[in-house]
Specification:
Elements: H1 3-26, H2 38-52, H3 58-68, H4 76-95, H5 103-124, H6 129-151, H7 166-183, H8 190-199, H9 207-229, H10 234-255, H11 260-303
Helix pairs in contact: 1-4, 1-5, 1-9, 2-10, 3-11, 4-9, 4-10, 5-7, 5-9, 6-11, 7-8, 8-9
Length: 304
């Protein structure tokens, strides 16, 4: 094992231990300390299963949470990061060492994404409900558009490189910093990371250890911020964890491959509906706020 990979696995181990410690510390302060429901476990299983196949999971989980009203909108980013961390770590352990991508590029992109997550999660944890609704709605629309372009063959297929040098290396590292920050807002890293590396000429399979390694460190780091703020759903997070770990193992060791194009079309329909619902909620919140601001002065005049 190369020195960069030793560094990565050491950091992953420390992040995993810190995540567990943070979860234990946060547990007594949660007001919703209920156990996970069967539906939440199923959501965790299905989305992590798709994640291990390279489709991603954040957009799908957000869509289900919104459509079934499983999680309050303002708690979705935290729940996504906290609940998906264990399955992301399992994915990284299985994929990072199995695909021989340039270890220096791996460490640099993963490290920049983790730094972005720390920066981004601190901002997201303080955002009001309506801002989160708008961000999530736009993110869903972008994810649906990317999946549509992929299915129609409008995105680059990538080259044959397993490493990057010069300005391409720097650009990949910089973009992953931004993607790490956006993950804290519930915007998945998989699709944009894969597209970025393909545009830079890398082999499509090279994206797997990079994006999975990044998520395995980004999500624990983002979770620390959400543990501090308490802006996540405890029971739902546990359900995602239980179902997610099993889903990854089934995808990797049993199913291994599926017709991804058909699955993406199904995901696109669900995501599009959820995006509209999320943005409609944001518009409704804005309308209610304006109504309150109009009524209050009138109330003061009557009371005078």
């Amino acid at each position: 094992m190369t020195a960069p990979l030793v560094v990565f696995y050491s950091a992953l181990c420390l992040a995993g231990i810190a995540f567990i410690a943070g979860a234990i510390r946060a547990a007594p302060h949660r007001l919703d300390r209920r156990g996970p429901t069967p539906a939440e476990i199923v959501v965790g299983f299905v989305t992590a299963f798709l994640d291990a196949l390279g489709i991603g999971s954040f957009a799908q989980m957000t869509a289900v949470f919104k459509l079934r009203r499983m999680v309050a909108d303002e708690l979705i980013p935290g729940t996504l990061n906290v609940g998906s961390t264990p399955s992301a770590i399992v994915e990284a352990v299985l994929f990072v060492g199995a695909i021989l991508v340039d270890p220096v590029l791996l460490i640099a992109t993963v490290g920049s994404a983790a730094a972005g997550a720390w920066f981004g999660a601190g901002i997201v944890a303080r955002l009001p409900r309506r801002a989160i609704q708008i961000i999530m709605g736009i993110a869903l629309l972008i994810a649906g558009s990317v999946f549509t372009a992929m299915n129609l063959g409008k995105l680059p297929g990538g080259g044959v490189a397993m490493s990057l040098v010069g300005w391409k290396f720097g650009l990949a590292v910089s973009i992953n910093f931004v993607l790490g920050a956006l993950m804290s807002a519930g915007i998945g890293l998989y699709a944009p990371c894969m597209i970025t590396l393909a545009l830079l000429g890398m082999h499509p399979i090279a994206a797997f250890p990079i994006m999975m390694g990044a998520c395995a460190l980004v999500q624990p780091i983002a979770s620390f911020r959400f543990f501090e703020s308490g802006k996540f759903a405890w029971g739902t997070s546990i359900g995602l964890t239980v179902g997610g770990v099993v889903g990854v193992l089934v995808a990797v060791y049993i199913v291994k491959s599926m017709p991804l194009t058909a699955l993406r079309w199904l995901v696109i329909v669900v995501i599009a509906y959820a995006a509209v619902a999320m943005l409609r909620s944001a518009a409704t919140s804005a309308g209610a706020a304006r109504a309150v601001s109009i009524v209050r002065p009138a109330d003061r005049e009557r009371s005078a």
